[in-house]
Amino acid sequence: MIRIAEDWREYSVLATGDGYKLERWGEIVLLRPDPQVIWKAQRDLFSYPGLAAVYHRSEKGGGNWEYRRPIPESWEIGYKDLRFRIKPMGFKHTGLFPEQAVNWERTSALVRQAVQAGRRPRILNLFAYTGGATVALAKAGAEVVHVDAAKGMVERAGENARLSGIASGIRYIVDDCKKFVQRELRRGNRYDGIVMDPPSYGRGPGGEMWKIETELFPFVSLCAELLSDMPLFFLINSYTTGLQPAVLSNILSLCIRREGKIDAYEVGLPTEEGIPLPCGAGGIYIHDL
């Protein structure tokens, strides 16, 4: 099953093929590599009228942006009542993963349901990047603890919150996620929901190594201990090619020994070609309310 983020108005995938995706971010069109796009392009993506910038991969790793026309250093786009700062960065990134709107919608609905019942859920967002989920959950009424090892990304998350009209309710932490979770357990802190978006590979601020194939299961098991007595959800996102939704389902089933349901799925984006663009996998545990 693939869940498609269909409600974007200021973002769209125009065309795909030959390892690239052509995207409209507001009024600016970018062409970026995508390892899932192994089919042949139906048009010449590099000659698209109005193409502003192309990201070229390097055989030595990383890559660089080729600018075809002047564009702002950064600009804003919106999703419903949320606003985000977009900026071309290293490793082809822009500071936002639009397909995650699927998960913003689902978890925000659970938060709003809890708020209507008189609760203010406390949510932990790990490997939280520029805060798409943080902003969505805070907007829905949650208190969010946002943790990422990159100071610059945490600062961007704060900017996205301000752009979205959120002045309070978010605590920003620059730290290694595993070390933070261990400290929270020792302090006796608990959360009503957990979101994690782990990288395939990574290093913490102290040089801590992360490799998803060996670290994800024990880390989810550790994080499960942080859940409150009446949790709402535990969500795992994965962009690692080849990590199937069933893997996330199995991990959640083995790590969370509570009543509830588990759903695992692909996430994706619609394209103007009429085919879905797969963008990774998600797995969510939802407690029986």
Give a quick rundown of the structure.
The protein is an alpha/beta fold. The chain contains six helices and 17 strands. Strand 13 (201-203) and strand 14 form a beta hairpin.
Descriptive account of the structure:
Strand 9 (122-126), helix 2 and strand 10 (143-148) form a beta-alpha-beta unit. The chain contains 6 helices and 17 strands. The protein has an 8-stranded mixed β-sheet, with helices on both faces. The protein has a 5-stranded mixed β-sheet with strand order 2-3-4-5-6, with no helix packed on it. It has 2 domains: 2-92, Sandwich (Immunoglobulin-like); 98-287, Vaccinia Virus protein VP39 (Rossmann fold), CATH 3.40.50. Helix 1 (101-116) runs parallel beside helix 2 (132-140). The protein is an alpha/beta fold and 289 residues long. Helices cover 25% and strands 34% of the residues. The chain is globular and about 55 Å long.
